[in-house]
Specification:
Helix content: 40-55%
Distance between the termini: 65 Å
Low-confidence stretches: none
Number of strands: 0
Number of helices: 17
Strand content: under 5%
Length: 465
C-alpha cells in the first residue's frame, strides 16, 4: 500500500499530469505528512490506513481512459485543440434557395433514448481474446516445422514428397469423351438417393457377403387398415337431417343396444346358479351319515371279490398266449395272410374296371368339387377383405367401439346456434388410431401407492392448551 501511495505521489507531483475533473486539484493529491503509527499490529491497519487519495487518483485515470481513450498528458495537442478559422468562403457565396423551390425537409431523425442508453459510452478498447489467437497443438506443429526445415537444409526429402515424385505422370494429351449435356429435357431422371447394385457383381456373391440391398417386404408398403383416417358420419347425424336418414340412424343405434342387452343376458344366464345344484337339508344329512352304516361294508366286500376273479382269468389267458407257436400254426397264418392280400388286390382290380363305366359320374363329381372349392375361395377372400376393415387384436385388450352419437327426434336443433356439442375430438382421434390398427387398445394406468401412509400423533403443548 505504501508503494502504491508513493507511486501516486510521484505521478501527481509531476508537472505534466492533468486531471480531467476540475474538482480535483493535483496539489491536493499530494498528501501532507501524517502521524507515524506502529502498523505491525493488526488493529492499527484499518484505523490509520488512508487510501482515499489513491482511489481518487485511480478513478481519475479510469475516467480519462473511458472518456478520451487514454491519459490527457499523453495526448497530442492536435487531438485536444483545433483552430477556428471562421466560416468558409464557399458557404458564404452559396445563394439561398428560393422559397418556392425548396423541398420541405423535416428534422433529422434523432436516435431514441433507449438506443442511446444501450450504446457503448466507453473508449477503453475491449480486452484481447487470448483464446482466439491460440492454435491447437501449436507446440507440436512448430516442432514439426522446425524439423522439416532442418531436414530440408541437409537435403533430405520426406517420404510423402518422395511418393508424390514417384507417381506416374498423367498423360494430358488424351482427351476424355465429352459428357452429355445435362440441359437436355429428354434425359433420364437420376435419383441420388436411390440405392442400386452394380450389374457386374455376382448376385450370389453379394447375397453371401451381405453387400447387396435388403429386399423390402411387401407388407411395409401396405396400410394396416383400409378404414379412412376421418370417417364421415351418416346423413342422419346432421343438425337438420332428413326424416328417413334420421330414422335409419336411430334403427342402427337401436340394433347396437339390443345386441349389448343380449350379450349381458347371455352372461347372466351363464353365471346364474342352478337350483337343482344347491344343497338341501337331505343332501347335507346324507353326506354327514355317509360311511357310518354297516350295510355298505358287505357290498364293498362283494365288489372287491369280483375284480380278483377277473384278474385270475386275465393271468391264465396271458399264459396261454405266451406259449410258443408250432411250425404248422405259423404256416397256416402265413397262408391266410397271403390269401387276404390276393383277395384285396383282386378287389381293387375289379373296382378299377368298374370305374371305367363311371367316367361321367366321376367327371360331374370333380366339377362339383371344383365349384365348391371356388366358392370357398371366394368366401375366404371376401372374409379376408372384410377383416381388413375390422380392428385386429394387437394386445391383451379388445377394441371397444364408441357409442353412436345420436339425437332423438325431440332433441334435434333447428339451427347451428341451438346445436349442443357432443363427444370429444381427442377421444375420437385416439379411437380412430386404435380402429386403424396403428396403436393397441389401452386402459388408463391405475395409480398404486408403493409406500404405506404412516400416521403419527404429535404431542404438542399448544394442542393441549
Amino acid at each position: 500500500m505504501a508503494a502504491a501511495r508513493r507511486l501516486k505521489r510521484v505521478a501527481a507531483s509531476q508537472a505534466g499530469f492533468l486531471t480531467l475533473k476540475s474538482a480535483v486539484d493535483p496539489d491536493d493529491l499530494v498528501s501532507s505528512r501524517r502521524k507515524r503509527v506502529n502498523k505491525n499490529k493488526k488493529k492499527n491497519w484499518n484505523k490509520h490506513s488512508y487510501i482515499n487519495d489513491v482511489e481518487d487518483f485511480l478513478e481519475d485515470v479510469r475516467h480519462q481512459e473511458r472518456t478520451t481513450g487514454g491519459l490527457l498528458s499523453e495526448k497530442s495537442d492536435d487531438s485536444l485543440f483545433f483552430l477556428d478559422v471562421g466560416q468558409s468562403e464557399k458557404a458564404e457565396q452559396k445563394a439561398p434557395e428560393p422559397v418556392e423551390g425548396r423541398k420541405r425537409r423535416g428534422k433529422a431523425p434523432r436516435p431514441l433514448r433507449i438506443d442511446l442508453i444501450l450504446q457503448r459510452d466507453s473508449l477503453v478498447p475491449p480486452p484481447k481474446d487470448v483464446l482466439a489467437y491460440q492454435q491447437p497443438n501449436a507446440k507440436k506443429l512448430r516442432r514439426i516445422a522446425q524439423k522439416a526445415e532442418q531436414l530440408a537444409a541437409k537435403g533430405v526429402v520426406p517420404r510423402r514428397q518422395k511418393r508424390l515424385l514417384n507417381r506416374r505422370p498423367v498423360d494430358r494429351t488424351v482427351k476424355k469423351s465429352a459428357a452429355a449435356a445435362n440441359n437436355n429435357p429428354d434425359r433420364n431422371y437420376y435419383d441420388i438417393w436411390e440405392e442400386k447394385v452394380k450389374d457386374s457383381a455376382d448376385p450370389w456373391y453379394l447375397k453371401q457377403t451381405c453387400k447387396g440391398p435388403v429386399k423390402r417386404p411387401e407388407k411395409l408398403s401396405q396400410k394396416p387398415s383400409v378404414i379412412p383416417a376421418v370417417e364421415v358420419i351418416a346423413p342422419g347425424g346432421s343438425y337438420n337431417p332428413d326424416f328417413l336418414s334420421h330414422q335409419a340412424l336411430l334403427r342402427e343405434a337401436h340394433e347396437v343396444e339390443v345386441k349389448k342387452q343380449k350379450q349381458e343376458a347371455k352372461l347372466e344366464k351363464q353365471l346364474a346358479v342352478n337350483r337343482e345344484d344347491t344343497a338341501t337339508e337331505e343332501t347335507n344329512l346324507r353326506e354327514q351319515v355317509e360311511g357310518l352304516v354297516e350295510e355298505d361294508d358287505e357290498k364293498i366286500g362283494d365288489e372287491e371279490a369280483a375284480p380278483n376273479e377277473d384278474d385270475e382269468e386275465a393271468a391264465v389267458a396271458a399264459i396261454a398266449v405266451a406259449e410258443k407257436k408250432t411250425e404248422k400254426q405259423r404256416r397256416k397264418e402265413k397262408a391266410e395272410k397271403i390269401k387276404a392280400q390276393r383277395r384285396l388286390a383282386s378287389r381293387r382290380q375289379i373296382d378299377q374296371k368298374q370305374q371305367l363305366f363311371q367316367l361321367r359320374s366321376i367327371k360331374t363329381s370333380i366339377k362339383h368339387q371344383e365349384h365348391e372349392t371356388e366358392t370357398k375361395q371366394i368366401k375366404r377372400k371376401a372374409k379376408q377383405e372384410a377383416q381388413k376393415a375390422q380392428p385386429r387384436r394387437l394386445g391383451k385388450l379388445k377394441f371397444q367401439a364408441t357409442d353412436l352419437e345420436v339425437q332423438l327426434s325431440d332433441e334435434l336443433a333447428g339451427s347451428l346456434r341451438q346445436l349442443k356439442p357432443e363427444g370429444s375430438i381427442l377421444k375420437d382421434r385416439f379411437k380412430s388410431l386404435q380402429k386403424r390398427n396403428i396403436i393397441e387398445p389401452r386402459e388408463r394406468a391405475k395409480f398404486k401407492r408403493r409406500l404405506k401412509v404412516k400416521y403419527v400423533e404429535k404431542r404438542a403443548f399448544k394442542e393441549i392448551a
